[in-house]
Amino acid sequence: xxxxxxxxxxxxxxxxxxxxxxxxxxxxxxxxxxxxxxxxxxxxxxxxxxxxxxxxxxxxxxxxxxxxxxxxxxxxxxxxxxxxxxxxxxxxxxxxxxxxxxxxxxxxxxxxxxxxxxxxxxxxxxxxxxxxxxxxxxxxxxxxxxxxxxxxxxxxxxxxxxxxxxxxxxxxxxxxxxxxxxxxxxxxxxxxxxxxxxxxxxxxxxxxxxxxxxxxxxxxxxxxxxxxxxxxxxxxxxxxxxxxxxxxxxxxxxxxxxxxxxxxxxxxxxxxxxxxxxxxxxxxxxxxxxxxxxxxxxxxxxxxxxxxxxxxxxxxxxxxxxxxxxxxxxxxxxxxxxxxxxxxxxxxxxxxxxxxxxxxxxxxxxxxxxxxxxxxxxxxxxxxxxxxxxxxxxxxxxxxxxxxxxxxxxxxxxxxxxxxxxxxxxxxxxxxxxxxxxxxxxxxxxxxxxxxxxxxxxxxxxxxxxxxxxxxxxxxxxxxxxxxxxxxxxxxxxxxxxxxxxxxxxxxxxxxxxxxxxxxxxxxxxxxxxxxxxxxxxxxxxxxxxxxxxxxxxxxxxxxxxxxxxxxxxxxxxxxxxxxxxxxxxxxxxxxxxxxxxxxxxxxxxxxxxxxxxxxxxxxxxxxxxxxxxxxxxxxxxxxxxxxxxxxxxxxxxxxxxxxxxxxxxxxxxxxxxxxxxxxxxxxxxxxxxxxxxxxxxxxxxxx
Length: 704
Prior knowledge:
By secondary structure, the protein is an alpha/beta fold. Helix content is 61%, strand content 8%.
């Protein structure tokens, strides 16, 4: 049997239950991409409407009205005004929050006046009842002229009726209301009449939007000029027209509410959310609770992710070891083991952190606390050029900058979003932790300050605080150089507190992991293979000399294991990466670094934690669980003049370098993806490397 396909667009206000309904309708039959030209998530899926009809659903970004301000609102606006060539909808499901009916109906009535086939899905009816709000669905349906269906996506209530209404609307059993919700033509009769001569298919209301926003539409130049001429002829006033329209809509909505809705006296309402906000948004306790929540989030990401990360690392290590024993010692086996498998391991090992981080963030969003975090931190963030919504990407950066930068999409203002992306990598991520641990153990004595504070722990805390403070400082400075003239409005709706939707949490975790592996993963793989090549090959004469020395030493039969380690170290020193290390040595000597540290800086560019593995190879030492052999060997390392290499000054200089340096290809790849330009990753890499060099130089000169 051949199925008819209906294209459905899901629209509504933010926090109206739109995502819940989308997940309920599509289940796992959904995919996440991007709308062309912007980094706004594009969620699509499919659902069965009846035996003969299938619905392809697109979840459009939430918006409060047809007057867009944010990037994601423009995406929805272009679809509704038929200006998106790729997305055309046969039916629009407008999701309306029953507990905030007046505000939600504004957007709904605007879509109705665009003469779109609309089905109104009324969500949160149970919450409205708890507030004492009673809605007469039949009366509301008569007043609006479109089908109204009460749904509860969490409990699957009303979903069958909603699908039936969509099927009937698609089959033209429900007609688009002939009469406008308000008298749109009266808003600007002359301009609308002239515009409709130029664009005959436009309704009275869509004509208003052509007059206001035609510059943003993809129209022929001649048509743009003619519309501009209409505006000038009638002296069309955008602001006055918009204000008049909104006032008239709310006036009619108020009359409908009097007929179809019964509401209690708002002074009698003191619900659970209000009582909880009195505590969580308290001027003093609110900030202490916030610090506690963020501390638990930070600890949970480390604690929960360490086990699956260890399993993944062990699995890839076992796979590499098995293949090394089975495959012949030729170049392609080395490429497979140390290039491809090592590269894949470097991608997959971050997946647990990304899934857990986004899972926890989704929990905070679902419960309603995320909006409170933004509200509490807005004043501090705004003083350095950011806003309250920047705090979660910054906090997330303590786990991994990659998902943190991806989560900056929630920031509407382009300048504030860009600043957040640029400074987030300064936050010390978990990949820096192995570097900090080995260097602190190497140069900081294990003593106590005031008898109870461990000095090594204090240094560790200082490194994390240093990155956070510098991120705020850099943002404050950078805001004067980024000239994006876009007004910043921190308008935030505080949603009610509710239980998390576990299906939504799980699907978000899976989708974010897919995005990371498929997008950033490609770049990481390529860089890993390039680094393998640079570390495995070198000029022919040099490598031949190393091979000859190895064969001669091997022929003696003395301490073969040590000979093999020396051979690996000599090969690395004479590889292209090693030559590069020697080349940059004069530039990094003022920081207290030598060529071996230089090689580590280069190889750890793919991932900072590679530093430890590179050090182990360079010093011809196998790593053990406690890293003692490696630390002992590093302590014994000497400069050409016989003085110790890893002094307090060198150790602190190297730690500070890793706090500030941009040594993460995946972060640069995600920055490129989010900003749609190589300009910002280059700026990010340049300023962070320069800052790392200057701060390391300062620290080394002070402590040497």
